[in-house]
Request: fold
Amino acid sequence: MSKITIPFGPQHPALKEPENFMLVLEGEQITSAGINLGYNHRGMEKAAEGRTYIQNLYLIERVCGICSHSHTTTYITNVEELAKAEVPQRALAIRTLFAELERVHSHLLWLGVAGYEMGFETLFMYTWRDREQVLDCLELLSGNRVHYSINTLGGVRRDITAEQKAEVLKRIKYLEERTQYYIKLATQEPTVLARTANVGKLPYDVAIERGAVGPTARASGVARDVRKDDPYLLYAQLDFNLITHNTNDVFGRLVVRALELVESYKIINQVLNNLPEGPVAVKVPMKVAPGECVNHYEAPRGEDIHYLKSNGTDKPERLKVRAPTLANLQSVAYMLEGGWLADVPLVIAAIDPCMSCTDRAAVWNPKKGKTEVYSWEEMRKLGIEQYKRRGVDFSRL
Amino acid sequence: MESILPLAYILIFPGFLFLAVYGLYLQWVDRKLCAVMQNRMGPPWIQPYADFIKLLAKEVIVPDAATNKTMFRVLPFFAMAAVMTALISIPVWTPAALFSFQGDMVVVIYLLTIPTVTFFLAGWSSSSPYSTVGSMRVLTQLFAYEVPLMLSLIGPAILAGTWNISEISAFFAAHPALIPAQLLGFLAALVALQGKLERMPFDIPHAKNEIVGGQFTEYSGRLFGFFCLAVDMELVVGAALVNAVFLGGSLGFAGAAGLAVFLGKTLFITFLLALLKVLMARIRIEQMINFCWKYLAPVAMAQVAFDIFLKYRIG
Reply:
């Protein structure tokens, strides 16, 4: 049978964000897969350099629609470390609470997306209905469903009242019951098992070699979780388990995420029942002393890394974001090869991709079927030429 | 009058108009049932009609790369015509079909295979990568469900001792006690019908997450509308066939009562098909073939064997 090349994206029903996978098919089986990034470059890192630290909070929140709290927390931790600010314990607790509510919201969303990609729309509808509970919690606590904007320089914007605490605990209890049902469903429903078991294999060695992070790595037996390896916020004081699974496939990723939900409920209960007293924010000067800082954070999708360089003004000199999807995309090419076309959406979805957060690399597709990466010199040359055409000469800069 | 009546049968009832209206209605019933089972609102009853009328008004785009543009345009009508023709030999509101003859079951099965073949040709002639993969899946799937479907229909035919659908349903209407004995075959036929109608979990040829619109990717406007209508009509005809062969057709009633029985039973079959749709995840094409040959065909065979035994016992 002759080989067919199928473009999977940038516009495709299975992809919520523009990304391109070129699949070479032999019948129904994939012989090779290529990934092209760069359809959604938004120049956020550059934009951050022109804004103050406070303004950047709201920009960084929009790196990702789902991990909005992850990105702002990583960023704000960097700023606070450079500014040597002492964040109150209560603020840290509220940040931890939001981090876990976000994980619950993200993992439930993922369960639904996985259901949809395997053609199980009922699972999709059910999980997204239940996800409303946690979104309501977030709205109750912060005023917003997705971009909570709870972080501020030196603490958090809002405190939690006793009524809010009771309401959140009530909803979390309901979600705990539902999650038990989903765990049962995911591990017993024959068609779900048929679609996920032995699909998108990522052996332990390959996961290490390709630097997989988050649930993708943990489903390959790699015990890698920033919350345990390098505890931040209040995680050092909390009691929760690191979930790993050793099936190395989509089923493992499903189980890891479902069981992590249970751990998240545990954490939320612990944090809410032991909220430290005190203020929720301290004053931090607008200007930050010169320095460099790197921080990492366990986002729902994996390790999120931010680098920040300050120069003594109220604006950062350089901000670099490494979203977890970029780390996991290297594994996707491996997982796709030799698999079935029918499994492509599920395998891609199984890393819980967040393409728009990832796309800040410049990759250029000059001719059909050929991809080139710009070097720094080429990028600079292109920029100078571009502006020359507009009448500005930057070549002597 | 004598010459107008057959024309009315073909164009109005139970032909084109009835099939179109009832097919779109069943589409709504199916969507609404799924929505309720999935905890959603679902569309209003007018939605399928509005969709169809909207599609009729839309521009038809024939791809430049289409290998045979005439065929590309004609195929939806072929599919629809084959489905409509099949209904003429299946009893609807009377104990006997309009044009029944010995061996009409074979003809109906053959006519119901034509839409599938047109789906394949439609995908193949669009020559887009998604359509090509989709049309290959259409044919692969055809070889998976067709045999179990035929096997399951053979059981009642053997028991009734005829290849005439009307006589089979008359036989079951006369011996209602034998209907529960066909349970295995009935279920096998329902599952195979689900595969024939390319509905979840067997909507592999046009699995939207994988190959966008599958064989219909390049179809638009009126042509796409008629393909959709043909699929909806196929649901009615498929349900009518299963009803006539396994559930005793109109149970001996005629006229309005017969029609009520027909509508009630096709709605029940649609409910069962909707239930199948929401219960499972879409399976892969090779899993579908394995399932159909390893489990579905033996189940249908067991029913045939049981029917032969039953026939021997009751004489």
